[in-house]
Amino acid sequence: MSKKITTVEQLRETVDQFTQDVERLTDEAKYEEAEKVNSKLETLKALLYEKEEEELKKKHAISIEELKQAYEEKMNKFNFEWDETMTKFENDSATLIKTTKEKQNRQLAELETEFRTAAETGTLPPVVFSQECQLLREQEKQLGKMKKFKEAQRTKMAADAMEEDEINRHQKGLEKRNNDRIIQLKKQMLFELTNLEKTIERERNANRTKRLDETAQLEQRYKNMQQEQARKNRTELNEFHSKRAKLQFKERSMASSMVRTSARSSPKKAGPKAKSSPKRQAPH
Questions:
Q1: Of 180, 237, 181, whose CA–CA distance to 56 is shortest?
Q2: In a designed cystine with 159, which of 36, 136, 241, 252 is the match (CB 3.0 to 4.6 A)?
Q3: Is residue 272 part of a domain?
Q4: How do residues 64-83 score in pLDDT, each as one tens digit?
Q5: CB neighbours (10 Å) of residue 176?
Q6: Long-range contacts of the stretch 126-132 (C-beta < 8 A, 24+)
Q7: Coiled-coil segments, which residues (predicted)?
Q8: 130 membership: H or E segment, kind and range
Q9: Helix (H) or strand (E) holding 134
Q10: 119 domain-assigned
Q11: What is the pTM assigned to this prediction?
């Protein structure tokens, strides 16, 4: 072999050429040369088998690696899309909470402004004095008309004190009512905000669960594809070995057949002739 063999294809061509050379030398009855070439041929066949097996295993390794790369690319895209989805969800949720709080703050400010304006403009609900207080005022007027001024003064002072007390109680009642309305509004605001946050948390957990489920599905699909590719690779490698074994068996069978045919067609060597015993002459 003057040319250096570097590829499997060159090795196959060389094996084919040596096979033809062996057949030709055999036909020409140049058995010694045929034996030498055949010895090289067997070495080349063994080398070709090793190279083909190596190439097949490399192809299998590439198929597994390509499958892995495809899976990683898909997972990267999957995670990127989910990250974007979750980022948008969190941003939208934060915006919704912010706008809800701003709306609630406006509602509270409007209610406080309403109370303050009513106090400043005197549009608060008027005081309704008790019947007892009203009777005292009537008595005061009657006593004044009757010129019982000392008694009228005492009655007036009692009525003034009672009115002042009832006005104070009325103002405290208004303040309590306003405070109760503010407390009620704050409770409603807290309830609304809490429900909103719970809804957001439920949706967040649902998204996380969905992402985990889809991730598990992708991982399982990848494992299934890995197992299927490994099974195909094993089958192909087994078929390669089986084909090699069948070829070797066929070559051995052909070689044995040729040896038997050659043996039958070779002329047998003649053995030494037996000496014939001298014939006796009959007596005259």
A1: 237
A2: 136
A3: no
A4: 999 999 999 999 999 999 99
A5: 10
A6: 127/163, 127/166, 127/167, 127/170, 128/170, 129/162, 129/163, 129/166, 130/162, 130/166, 132/162
A7: 8-121
A8: none
A9: helix 131-145
A10: yes
A11: 0.64
